[in-house]
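Why does residue order matter? Because the sequence determines the fold. Keep that principle in mind as you read this record.
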Amino acid sequence: MNSSIVAKEAIEVIAQSIGITNLSPDVSLTLAPDVEYRLREIIQEAIKCMRHSRRTALTAHDVDTALILRNVEPIYGFGSGGDKAPLRFKRAAAAGHKDLYYIDDKDVNFKHVIEAPLPKPPLDTSLTSHWLAIEGVQPAIPENVPIEALGVTSDGKKSDYKDDGLSVDVKPPVKDILSRELQLYFEKVTKLIARRSESAIFKQALLSLATDSGLHPLVPYFTHFIADEVSRNLNNFSLLFAVMRIARSLLQNPYIHIELYLHQLMPSIITCLVAKRLGNRFSDNHWELRNFTANLVALICKRFGHAYHNLQPRIMRTLVHAFLDPTKSLPQHYGSIQGLAALGPSVVRLLILPNLEPYLLLLEQEMLLEKQKNEIKRHEAWRVYGALTRAAGLCMYDRLKMLPGLLTPPSRAIWKSNGRVMTAVSSMTCFNFSFWDTFIHACIYPATGCVNNCLKIPVNACVEMGFLCGYLFFSSMCVFTFIMQVLDLPKNKCLKT
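Structure:
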């Protein structure tokens, strides 16, 4: 007697579906109990998967997981609900089996299948990284879902529901909360920038920004403020200068990690260096602002260049493009030259000196009175010429420092004459004065004289005269040093017999 819940007729139907038509009744009776045993195993494994998922309803996905655990290929085409319609079974009464069921498949029109749009291709697998939190504060970036998008309730929690109807409380991300003291500090400093940027209290605020160790929560607010003010107030010279002083104080503070915000600061700083126009009045000394910003760029590269190896190359690429672009204005060229010179003599030798000769040919047209009638343009051209002279002089001075004993006097130099022991004149201070400043002035004064004479002497002649005077001055200093070493002049003492 067959005690299996699986009827032999079901075994026969399954055999016919796979092409076996001559299955004997005895074989069907023998296979039925074994099929029932296998089915019970699969159902038990599926129930375990359901309980591990903390659900009370068995799904097709649980059955597929159980089949995979038994090393059996899962059944395809039977989803677990969702947007799909549930499966509908119908009794196969016409086949002569009262307990035989089949799935009522929907008839599909081939025309609809052909005209249906193609499904979207699957997305390629990729990995991205972003900041979940910086110093305990979650940054507002697209990857971090804002609180409003989570659909929080009035009590600050999001209610979600499982498949079994149990509610789950999902806490929203932590808000960036500033203390009342920090909020007042930020408001006071920003008001000082707009109204009293030259006052003594603003200088104290700058000192506080450069030394206070508890300002790190305010760094993202200050960087956003700097970027916003620079983009909106390029015509306000005093505000731009105050904002750059704020940026320098933040960069000098050793207690805050401002390198995380360099990507927000650098565009504003470079803008104040190579912008076409800074301020809207002729009296605005935008040259000083560009010089200040150039030193600020050098400070950033010196402090953070070792951590970000592409920082200085990117800055150099931006500045050299502005320097070599003939469509840029002369103040923009001046800012780029000052920025490159602030990065050191090696940068000048690499990027400025190879382009100096062709650039001077173009600059000469703007410096001559006969060719440039606009006095402002001539003034800008001579400013650029001075920046180039200083940059080239820095390279020369860097080379001179490699010659030992050239820029410093001997340690002991005594000269005896007429019964007296004399020393070198104290006003000479034994080359303790700035040798380089004297050398540069010797090179620039002839060109300045050309300006005072209404530029009647060509620029090339001015340059040649300048370097000739510098060469003569340099030669005389070498001879003087040699005489001091031969005569053994003293350094800073004067003894009487």
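The domain at 180-402 is CATH 1.25.40.770 (Serine Threonine Protein Phosphatase 5, Tetratricopeptide repeat).
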